[in-house]
Design goal:
- This protein is an all-beta fold.
- Helix content is about 0%, strand content about 50%.
- The strands form six sheets. Strands 2, 3, 4, 7, 8, 9, 12 and 13 form an eight-stranded antiparallel beta sheet that branches. A seven-stranded antiparallel beta sheet has the order 1-21-18-24-16-15-14, with no helix packed on it.
- The N and C termini lie close together (about 10 Å).
- InterPro entries: ChrR-like_cupin_dom (IPR025979), RmlC-like_jellyroll (IPR014710), RmlC_Cupin_sf (IPR011051).
- Pfam families: Cupin_7 (PF12973).
- This is Cupin domain-containing protein.
- It comes from Shewanella vaxholmensis.
Length: about 220
């Protein structure tokens, strides 16, 4: 197990992590949280070398992907940097990358009733006005779970707040900050149920945010 105590706050600067081999040649990963070696609840940054591929595999409780760099592909299409994908429980595919890519992958974390297929090119999706100077791009919601991109303009400060059901952030660009630290590009932050903070930025910053999806109490030691 890795980082499966959901009552603890976790911060990982993934740019400082080494790439570890996966079962597929030319596919590398940086684990963020993991229930078991090759199954169960898993979140990772994954890199496909140019020309690499992964064998056809199922997603018992879904797969969520955000393409960070390059072009990720499977038998259903090509997905450029900025693509957000959701493959529902019971789906399967055979992914590959002709030119190479880096992606965020979250496995086996769907509600079994969340069956929507989602494919969004965020580079071609308009931003909506959020609170203050923030801009928001909703990506998915199901019951109390919400996923979105949030763009922070230079110098923006948000009010102190708490996260019912927790909050998970991946910094896509710029540098995110709060009273607990500074988080550069590709830092992953997981904050537990009812945690709070006072976020702000000094430079334009874009974050991928998921809220309301973590357990209310610890489920694993």
């Amino acid at each position: 197990m890795l980082n499966m105590n959901f009552s603890e706050r976790v911060v990982i600067d993934t740019q400082q992590q080494p790439w570890l081999p996966s079962p597929a040649q030319g596919v590398w990963r940086k684990p963020l949280e993991r229930e078991a070696k090759e199954s169960g609840h898993t979140s990772s940054i994954v890199k496909y070398d140019a020309g690499s591929q992964f064998a056809t595999h199922p997603h018992p409780l879904g797969e969520e992907i955000f393409v960070l760099e390059g072009v990720f592909s499977d038998e259903n299409g090509d997905y450029h940097a900025g693509s957000y994908l959701r493959h529902p429980p019971g789906s399967q595919h055979a992914p590959f990358s002709q030119e190479g890519c880096v992606i965020l992958v979250k496995l086996n974390q769907f509600n079994p009733r969340d069956l929507d297929v989602v494919k969004i090119n965020t580079q071609q999706t308009p931003w909506l006005q959020g609170i203050g100077g923030l801009q928001v791009m909703p990506l998915h919601e199901f019951e109390h779970e919400h996923t979105a991109l949030v763009k922070w303009p230079k110098g923006e400060t948000f009010q102190p707040h708490r996260h019912f059901g927790g909050e998970e952030i991946l910094v896509l660009s710029g540098k995110f900050q709060d009273e607990q630290g500074e988080y550069p590009r590709h830092t992953w932050i997981r904050s537990p149920h009812m945690s709070g903070h006072f976020p702000f930025v000094e430079e334009e910053t874009i974050i991928l945010v998921k809220t309301g999806h973590l357990p209310i109490s610890t489920i694993q030691p």
